[in-house]
Every structure is written in C-alpha cells, then in structure tokens.
Design goal:
mainly beta; eight-stranded mixed β-sheet; 1 helix; globular; binds zinc ion
C-alpha cells in the first residue's frame, strides 16, 4: 500500500511508492526546526527520491546548516505547510514531514538530535539514540 502525505490545505501531496518503509523517523530539537515547524521539534521521514512523488505547487527556502551544508524546505504556496525537504547531507533522498502523513502508526523515532535545545518536557521514546547536537 502506498503512503500519502498532505499539507494542511491538501493542495500539495507526497506519495511514497508501495512497500517503502517509513521507518527512518528522527526527531530534531534544533532551533531551526522549532522555527520551521512552529512546534517544539521537527520530525522528517527520508525515502529514496525515486520512491516519492511530490504533486502540487511549492516554493522553497534554503538555509545553511551548522556543518556548512544546505537544507531546503519545500512548502505549499497556499497554506505554507512545510511538507518536503532536500538536504546535502542526504543526497538521493527526499524528506517528508512526518506529521503530514497524519498516521499514528509510523515507526517511532530511532534518534533524537540537538537535545541541548530540547524543551525539557518533551519526552524521547525509550531506546532512541540521543545526541546533544546533530548526528554526524
Ligand atoms: Zn497547502
Ligand atoms: Zn533540526
């Protein structure tokens, strides 16, 4: 069964091909993710580019990362939801906002990064690897 993520208004969707696991979910507590999402942390599922189809009109915003690379957010021009991502750190992969699947059965995050800026009340799932800064 394919999985489908959608922005707030539904104009932009990302469809992931049949059988592609959506298991690579990490949570990032960095301040850029907090501002990008308006939430205390960000969570992105990364899948191979060839398995993800983005439909709808997006614009993008690129920022430098602490490692000197670039991270690009693609967002819906109508509702502004961040829905897809590309990162020099993850060549060949498309990131999809975990929340855009609106699917509580997604695999829990295996890593938690930038914990030094984590809101102290945000609990990290048991067993997740934890890093004070980004995972290199
Ligand atoms: Zn939208
Ligand atoms: Zn982050």
């Amino acid at each position: 069964m394919s999985h489908r993520a959608a922005c707030h208004c539904g104009a932009v969707t990302v469809t992931v091909a049949d059988g592609v696991p959506l298991a690579i979910v990490n949570i990032c507590h960095c301040q850029a993710c907090q501002r990008r999402t308006g939430s205390p942390f960000g969570s992105i599922v990364w899948v191979p580019d060839a398995t993800a189809t983005v439909a709808g009109t997006t614009r993008s915003y690129t920022r430098p990362t602490d490692e000197g690379r670039h991270f690009t957010s693609h967002f819906c021009v109508t509702c502004g939801s961040n829905i897809a991502f590309t990162a020099e750190k993850n060549p060949g992969f498309t990131g999809i906002a975990a929340g855009a699947f609106a699917d509580p059965s997604l695999t829990p995050p295996r890593t938690s990064v930038w914990e030094e800026s984590r809101h102290p009340w945000v609990a990290v799932p048991e067993g997740a690897a934890r890093f004070p800064k980004g995972r290199v």
